[in-house]
Every structure is written in structure tokens, then in C-alpha cells.
Amino acid sequence: MMRVVETISQVRDWVAETRAAGARVALVPTMGALHAGHLALVERAGAVADVTIVSIFVNPLQFGPGEDLERYPRMLDADLRTLAPFPVSAVFAPSVEDLYPVRSHPADESPSGGRGTRVTAGHVATLFEGATRPGHFDGVLTVVSKLLNIVRPDVVLFGQKDAQQVFLVKRMMADLNVPVTVEVVPIVREDGGLALSSRNRYLSAQQKQSAVALSASLAAAAASAPAGRDEALAAAQQVLGAAPAVRLDYFAIVDPDTFLPVAADHRGLALAVLAAYVGTTRLIDNRLITLG
After folding, report:
1. Is residue 110 pLDDT above 80, yes or no?
2. 3-state secondary structure the chain
3. Known catalytic residues?
4. pTM score, two decimals?
5. Over the range 95-118, which residues count as b (16 or more CB within 10 Å of their CB) and which as e?
6. Each residue of 56-95: pLDDT tens digit?
7. For position 66, what pLDDT does the model report?
8. Residues 22, 185, 149, 75, CA torsion sign
9. What local confidence, expressed as pLDDT, does residue 68 receive?
């Protein structure tokens, strides 16, 4: 039976009991508003571990000024119903105060309102998503490091949709010698190709149709990739340019090993990444391609 734990001490006690029984533990970190993409992570967790714990926590550190922290959906009861048919042993749903305790001295508060120590994500975190959302990845890595230290799982699972986040989490874990296996689960898409996201609920039916241009541009880049980087970029831009309801933030082709833009003469595997606004909703997507 799935249990809900709300404090750090409770989840640590639960994990200790589970480990004492010899179980392998998987952690699926989420911000809730669960959809089929999250459930793909849960299903994969069940295949690689004996017990699965899903964390549900809307992390304030990864939202910048003017972003949708306040309107981000918080629907714990619905999320628990969504998880009920799946082999989830526990849900960790901490409060902000428990995960980020207020310091006793004002000097411990940063000028930006953050609390205490943060993980710094480095140069790659200032590109692409980080250029539009300064400090976002510092907040992501901080909460991921906290969850890993609290739960101490054997394996942690992330979705490929958040490709830059996955790259930075894996690098942090390698740099800080975190002994946890990372499983990356492929993107789950709607029938038209739109990558599943909690933010898709903000789209009208017409906007969802327009948003299909994101995955279509990635398909165009993949089809033109044998001709080279510039041709792949041009093919993607042509698709996006024909979708006036889509406002492009960035489209880039990066080296999966460094997450830096590839040179014009790059050959072999590469990752096409993009972000765009459909109405006021910002969406991201990505696809592996092979440059010729």
C-alpha cells in the first residue's frame, strides 16, 4: 500500500526500514501535476528497483521573477489518485519549510531571497534554458542534491525532455561522487508529437495544434542532418517560420557530451534542442540527430 510521508525524518526512517529488508530503492523526483511522462518514469523505476518513491515538490529555487511559481499546479490528491494503480511504495511530499528551513540569522538569507547553501551549476547552466531563466539550474541541482542526500536511492530517474537538466544532474553527480545510478527515460509524446509537459494544460486546443510545430521542426532537422549542421538548422527554421503562433526562444544543435553548440563541420551524433512560446506558455523539446 502506497504511503505518503511529509517530513525528512519520516522518509529517512522509511528508507532505512526498506533497506533493512534488502530492497533496491528508486527515486522519481517530480513537481507534481503528473502526466503520462511521469508515469513512464514510474514504470521504468519498477523495472530497475524493488521499491519506488516519488517525490512531489514544487521547488521555488528554480523559478525566477515573473515565472509561474504561484500558478504552477499543486494537486497532491489528484496526483496520489494517478499513482494509485502503479507500483509506488511511497510518496515524499515535503513542505518548503522542511526542505529549506529558514535560517536564524538574517545574514544567512541571500539578496535574491534564497535560503542558505546552493549548488552552482556552472557555465553550461547559463546557456539555452539558463540564458532565459538565470539561476534556474542552480535551483534544480540544489533540490536534486537535497533529495538524493535525504532518500539515498540506488537509482534516480529523469525524463529526456529536460535534456539540459539531465546533462547537468549527471555531471553534478559525477563531480560530487554521488553513488547513484541515473536512468533517463525517453520523451513521451501526444498523438500529434507534442512532448508531454505539465505546462501543456495551459494550452488551448488551437494552441496545442500550433505547438506541434516544435516536434515537427525537430523531425525536419533530423531529416536534413545528413547534409550537415547548417542544413539541419535551416530546415527547422523553415518549419517554425511557418507557424506564426509559435515564438522561438532558441533552436540549437549541441554535442551530447558537452552540451555546447557543435561546429559547422561536426559529424556524428548531436542533440537538437529548442524552446518556444505558444501564447504565454513556454515549451521545450529535443531530439537526437546524426549529422553527416
Report:
1. no
2. CCEEECCHHHHHHHHHHHHHCCCCEEEEEECCCCCHHHHHHHHHHHHHCCEEEEEECCCHHHCCCCCCCCCCCCCHHHHHHHHCCCCCCEEECCCHHHHCCCCCCHHHECCCCCECCCCCCCHHHHCCHHHHCCCHHHHHHHHHHHHHHHHCCCEEEEECCCHHHHHHHHHHHHHCCCCCEEEEECCCECCCCCECCHHHHHCCHHHHHHHHHHHHHHHHHHHHHHHCHHHHHHHHHHHHHCCCCEEEEEEEEECCCCCCECCCCCCEEEEEEEEEEECCEEEEEEEEEEEC
3. 38
4. 0.93
5. eeeebbeeeeeeeeeeeeebbeeb
6. 999 999 998 878 788 888 999 999 999 999 999 999 999 9
7. 79
8. negative
9. 76
Instruction: Name which of 219, 218, 208 is nearest 246 in CA terms.
Output: 208
Q: Which amino acid is at 139?
A: G
Cell, residue 11: 522518509
User: Which pLDDT score is estimated for 72?
Assistant: 87
Q: How far is CA 178 from CA 42, 49, 193, 262, 286, in A?
A: 22, 18, 35, 29, 27
Handedness of CA 157, 158, 160, 165 (dihedral sign): negative
Contacts of 81 (CB under 8 A, 6+ apart): none
Q: Which three cell numbers stand for residue 243?
A: 507557424
